[in-house]
Amino acid sequence: MTATPLIVEHIDGVDWVTLNRPDSLNALDDQMIDALNQYFGDLARNSRTRIVVLKGSGRAFCAGLDLKEAMSRRPPNAPPPSVADALDHQRSIADIVMLMRRCPQPIIALVQGAASGGGFALALAADIRIAAKSARMNCAFIRLGLGGCDIGTSYFLPRLVGVSVASELILTGRFIHAERAHAVGLVSEVVEDGELDAAAAPYVESMLAASPLGLRLSKECLNMSVDASSIEAVIAMEDRNQVLTSRSEDFKEGVRAFLEKRKPVYRNA
Questions:
Q1: What is the DSSP letter of 187?
Q2: Cα–Cα distance between 48 and 42 in angstroms, integer?
Q3: Is pLDDT above 90 for 106?
Q4: Same structural domain, 89 and 142
């Protein structure tokens, strides 16, 4: 058992969050599930953290639910958990991806090695994904006798890659590797193993150049636009955001900096 399943390092407005069970390919055990729920739940009122970079320690991003750990906790010949208990545990995992979508901070996932099952779901729930050449991702659930749709995968995949590719991945459990993931728009770029942190830096730098309020409202608007019922609903959200941000001191600073040809200094005001 790893003493700290989740390592959070805060640097200049950015949380670098590391899944820290490398000996188990960062598989999700109860400790890590609780830690992820706690961390992403606390972000809603956290104005200090502007961006989250999520990654895995060792050679994998996350191999999904730790089945060995889960089975070891059940005595031999013990009856299965009740429906209520099973649903509660299921929801504790699914809550993580919902908290990731609701938190106002953009999330960048750095994927190397396996991102299977629940690990794939974590990557899909991020706003931007960067893959190492070793990355391989799949909806592992269907290979275990379960349904292929789990932890938000049937929500995210069709929106990211279209229904046809999503159907292939969900119904077969096939792995999608880095180059194809890039070709279908699942990841933004593919880099050499060991270069993921460096690859994230330009994304982080560009986001930090935005005003804190503008960045948060942009993530919120993107999320709502994906599910919007009409162009009118999207425009209404965009109009609201632009009016709100135009009343801020950061907007005045942004205009001054543009005219003076310098970097703006935003104060989240």
A1: S
A2: 11
A3: yes
A4: yes
User: Which CATH number goes with the domain that contains 167?
Assistant: 3.90.226.10
Look up the domain containing 248 and give its range: 211-260
Can you give the pLDDT at residue 72?
Answer: 66
Q: Which residues of 159-189 are buried (b: 16+ CB within 10 A; e: fewer)?
A: ebbeeebbeebbeebebbbbeebbeeebbee
Q: Which residue, chain included where needed, has tokens 């999320």?
A: 223
β-pairing verdict for 114-116 and 107-111 = unpaired
Number of domains in the chain: 2
Residue 14: CB atoms within 10 Å:
21
Tens of pLDDT, residue by residue over 13-25, are 999 999 999 999 9
Residue 26 lies in a domain: yes
Is pLDDT at 234 greater than 70 in this prediction?
yes
Which band of pLDDT confidence, cut at 50, 70 and 90, is reported for residue 203? Answer: very high
Say yes or no: 185 and 67 in one domain.
yes
Q: What is the spatial distance between Cα 115 and Cα 12, in angstroms, rounded to a whole number?
A: 28
Q: What average pLDDT does the structure give for the chain?
A: 93
The kind and range of the H/E element at 136 are strand 136-138
Asked if residue 266 is part of any domain, the answer here is no
Residue 139 lies in a domain: yes
- What's the confidence (pLDDT) of residue 87? 87
89 & 117 share domain: yes
Judgement on whether residues 115 and 72 belong to the same structural domain of the protein: yes
Rounded CA-CA distance 237/219 in Å is 12
What average pLDDT does this structure show over 105-118? 98
Alpha carbons 48 and 213: distance in angstroms, whole number: 12
